[in-house]
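Researcher: I'd like a candidate sequence for this fold, 174 residues long. If you have to choose between options at a position, lean toward the conservative one.
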C-alpha cells in the first residue's frame, strides 16, 4: 500500500476524494496496520446513561418467564384473597376494579420503558452493523493487498525464471 491514491482508485473504483468517512477511516487504519475491531458491548455501555441502563434492565426483567410466572402468581393470590379469604370484607371485590387500575398503571409505565429499550437495541444493531462493515471492508482490503503482494512475488519469480531459461538456452546454443 505504498501508493495510497492508486490503491484507492484500483480497489474502490473512485478517487480518494469521493470516499465516505467510513472508507477513509478504514483505509487509514489499514495503511497504519492498526486493529479496527472494537468491543461493541463496552463501547455502548460507556456511552449509555443511567436511565438507558435502567430501561434495559426493566425490559430484560419484564420480558422474562420469571416475571410472567411471578406476576401470574401475584394475580392468582390477589383473586384468591379477595374472593375466598376476605369474602365479607374484601378490599377489591370481584370484578377487581382496583387490580385493573394497578395493571393499567403498570402497563402505562412499562410500555414506554420497553419501547426505549427497543430503540436502544435498534441503535445497537445499527452500530454493530456499521462496525461489521468496517471490519469486513478492512479484511477485504487486507486480502486484496496480500493478493497484490503474492502476484508481485510470482511475477518477479517468473521474470527470474525467464532470465535463467534465456541464459541456459544461450549456453546450450554456444
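Model: Candidate sequence:
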Amino acid at each position: 500500500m505504498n501508493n495510497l491514491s492508486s490503491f484507492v482508485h484500483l480497489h474502490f473504483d473512485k478517487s480518494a476524494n469521493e470516499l465516505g468517512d467510513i472508507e477513509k477511516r478504514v483505509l487509514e487504519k489499514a495503511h497504519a496496520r492498526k486493529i479496527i475491531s472494537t468491543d461493541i458491548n463496552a463501547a455502548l455501555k460507556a456511552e449509555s446513561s443511567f436511565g438507558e441502563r435502567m430501561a434495559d434492565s426493566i425490559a430484560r426483567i419484564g420480558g422474562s418467564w420469571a416475571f410472567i410466572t411471578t406476576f401470574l402468581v401475584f394475580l392468582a393470590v390477589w383473586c384468591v384473597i379477595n374472593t375466598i379469604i376476605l369474602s365479607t370484607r374484601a378490599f377489591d371485590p370481584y370484578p377487581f376494579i382496583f387490580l385493573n387500575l394497578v395493571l393499567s398503571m403498570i402497563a402505562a409505565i412499562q410500555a414506554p420503558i420497553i419501547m426505549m429499550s427497543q430503540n436502544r437495541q435498534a441503535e445497537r444493531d445499527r452500530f454493530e452493523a456499521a462496525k461489521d462493515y468496517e471490519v469486513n471492508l478492512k479484511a477485504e482490503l487486507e486480502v486484496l493487498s496480500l493478493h497484490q503482494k503474492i502476484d508481485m512475488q510470482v511475477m518477479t519469480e517468473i521474470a527470474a525464471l525467464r532470465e535463467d531459461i534465456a541464459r541456459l538456452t544461450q549456453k546450450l546454443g554456444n
